[in-house]
Design brief:
The protein is an alpha/beta fold. It has two domains: 166 residues, 3-Layer(aba) Sandwich (Rossmann fold), CATH 3.40.50; 76 residues, no CATH class. It contains ten helices and ten strands. β7, α7 and β8 form a beta-alpha-beta unit. The chain is globular. The protein starts with a strand and ends with a helix. The C terminus is likely disordered. Bound molecules: adenosine-5'-triphosphate. Adenosine-5'-triphosphate binds next to α1. One of its GO terms (molecular function) is ATP binding. It comes from Sedimentitalea todarodis. This is ABC transporter ATP-binding protein.
């Protein structure tokens, strides 16, 4: 089943056409990576999907429902969550409190106006469940400002998970994350595989080829290939346009 459908999306900044007639289908439960050189338009495309940026033309549908004209908050309500670039983590709050705020925002007044012990317990349990899925429950009581960069990224993932998404848009989750932290992050995403549709933008090709079911290659705003990691890796046009030597390292 297709959970997210993109048809003929286009966006220009002045004379620069940044996304150019992009059409893609994201299947339910799959990790679909979008790769491409710097400036190819990947982040712009994600912003068009999330509703942060209005497209010049084209259409986006979630589960068959046209959301092209919907705002970002309305798309979040339909299960589309974007992580990493719009999240504002409160540094003086604990990781649990940060995630609890996202749970509260998701459930609105049902948590806010009835401050019973039962509600607070439910709120904390939901937040802890999201932290567990992101592999950060052991740091629940730590203030966000004391987290490592990699842990901070996992907190942002937990905040996105707290919105109970059907589709997760991850924009370079591994940027600036190295070594063990990167391995932990990839392992966590592996565990989430199948639970949500994940659209993953990532420059770390080891991570992309380890995680993705489908890979699409964006070059100068146009999708030049879509397919399994193996098919994309051996596509001559992709090798010429983008992957080059990098592909050799992971082959
Ligand atoms: N708000 C904006 N106004 C003008 N130009 C923009 C804007 N946002 C992006 N661009 C330009 O659009 C092009 C694509 O940018 P985008 O960030 O989408 O690429 P990207 O593939 O995500 O790159 P990277 O891999 O480096 O993050 C770039 O040339 C960028 O300078």
């Amino acid at each position: 089943m297709t959970s997210l459908t993109v048809r003929n999306l286009t966006k220009s900044f002045g004379a620069l056409k940044v996304t150019d007639d992009v059409s893609l289908d994201f299947a339910s439960g799959e990790i679909h990576a979008i790769i491409g050189p710097n400036g190819a338009g990947k982040t712009t495309l994600i912003s068009q999907l999330s509703g942060q940026l209005r497209s010049d033309s084209g259409a986006v549908a979630i589960g068959g429902r046209d959301v092209t004209r919907l705002s970002m908050p309305d798309r979040v309500k339909l299960g589309l969550a974007r992580s990493f670039q719009i999240t504002s983590v409160l540094p003086g709050f604990t990781t649990l409190e940060n995630v609890a705020l996202a749970v509260q925002a998701r459930h609105g007044s049902s948590f806010r106006f009835f401050r019973t012990v039962a509600n607070e317990t439910a709120l904390n349990e939901a937040a802890l469940a999201a932290l567990r899925e992101a592999g950060l429950d052991h740091r629940a009581e730590i203030r966000a400002k004391s987290l490592s960069h990699g842990e901070h990224r996992r907190l942002e993932l937990a905040i996105a998970l707290a919105t109970e998404p059907k589709i997760l848009l991850l924009d370079e989750p591994l940027a600036g994350v190295g070594g063990e932290d990167a391995d932990t992050f990839v392992a966590n995403l592996q565990k989430l595989k199948g639970k949500f549709t994940i659209v993953l933008i990532e420059h770390d090709m080891d991570a992309v080829f380890a995680l993705a079911d489908q890979v699409s290659v964006l070059v100068y705003g146009r999708i030049i290939a879509t397919g399994s990691p193996e098919a994309v890796r051996s596509d001559p046009e992709v090798r010429t346009a983008y992957l080059g030597d990098e592909v050799g390292e992971v082959a």
